[in-house]
Predict the 3D structure of the following.
Amino acid sequence: MSDRHPAFMPLILVGGLIFGFGLAYSQMARPEVVLNFLQFEDFGLVFVMFGGAAVTGVTFFLAPRLLGRAPLTGDSFERRLKSFDRNVLIGGAIFGVGWGLSGICPGAAYASLGIGNITILWALAGMFLGAYAQGFWRSRSQARDAAVTGAD
Amino acid sequence: MVLDPLPLQVAAELFPNGISRYAIGGLLVGLGVTVIYLGTGISAGASTFLESTLSYVSDQSRFQQYVTSRDWRLVFTLGIVLGAAVYAVVYQGGAWTTDVQPWRLLVGGVFVGIGTRVGKGCTSGHGVCGVGSASKTSIVGVLAFLTVAIVTAQVVAALGVSP
């Protein structure tokens, strides 16, 4: 969009580059490594999440206290927490079946493509199919709910 | 024969490949999120890209709500692919491909695609961003998918499916 700061997209790209390099470095872009972790053969993968969450934890704690607003968007650094409901558990369980079967999650799948793993396109195709099916179903049920409300 | 002290033996068993590559990789993932957050206030997860990109080809309201963020999410994902490619060139010396069977990737991918959208986040959104902000929702989400993933992977392996 035209009203965006000229450095907005370059910064997103740089953040993505570091993120993807880190995922590849952590070996999480390889489904075999994730499956080894889930089968209790190598517990190292917990340090990927701990390492990542430790850094973001410091960032999310300090940024609102030390900085006023984000320089490129003018947005405040408030916590935007996701609300909890049953769907977090249901979705988490469905995600877990997929992650346990394939050994790959969305971010790691993009990184996997980057390390030359073209076979991962199967997983990416599956993810788009799944997201489409979910969105199709959700859009329909929303439209139906709206229609019912409108009739009242 | 000199035996390592017990703690070292245990560590070698739990972490046969050490922990540095995992920890350094994780720190970099967190750094990538930090760079974007400090500049824009956005805490970026990876999986919304799936829906936001579908808004280019589908009019469903569920996807159209992401129209305003779909362009930067595309750039973010492009960055992830390129960053991993840099790793491959520097450390890997060429392409690497998985031996995990395509049907597992495809079927697993479908479940991942449904689950991440129903459950409001994935390994990066809940696991790195959410846990980092001490969100109870995300911690519960991580525990849910981690538990189910462990059971699933162990059952699949026990059934003799490999790789």
Remarks:
- The helical segments of chain A are 8-25, 31-38, 46-66, 86-102, 106-114, 121-151.
